[in-house]
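quick one, 155 residues, struct below
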Amino acid sequence: MSTQNQISTAIPEAVIEKVLKALQESKAALAPYLHSLTDVEKRSLFKMGDKSIATVQKVKTYVETNPEFVPAYMDKTEFLKDEAVASQLGPVFSLAEQLAADVQDTITLAGSEALLAAMLYYGQIKEAHKKGIPTSKPIYDDLSKRFVRRNKKSI
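---
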């Protein structure tokens, strides 16, 4: 078990509060324009990927420069609105995704180091309990519930 410390930081509570407030404000500002989908709805929709984005943007240009080819049954106004929303939200999503990934990685790293340290402490308490040190018993009794070994089922 490695005790190498890869992260050593303390985030001031004021920073956390500022970030949470900014995220809440951002979520509230976008709320009227965002739509939630069920898993079934998501699976039933065409997905716009990197290649599709370029195609949609190219079609937008043609729709604007050559409107005579827009089919009568296509709602040009709605197409342009949909393309604009998808284009506008792309950078927002990218930034949110980067933030989420960085936050998740930091939680993973800090959590791993905290768990390893907690296991070291538990090992010390377990050893103290085995040696009969009375003050270790209540701590051992409490923590040992978290470290119960489970038998693996044989296949």
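The helical segments are 13-30, 39-44, 50-65, 76-130, 137-144.
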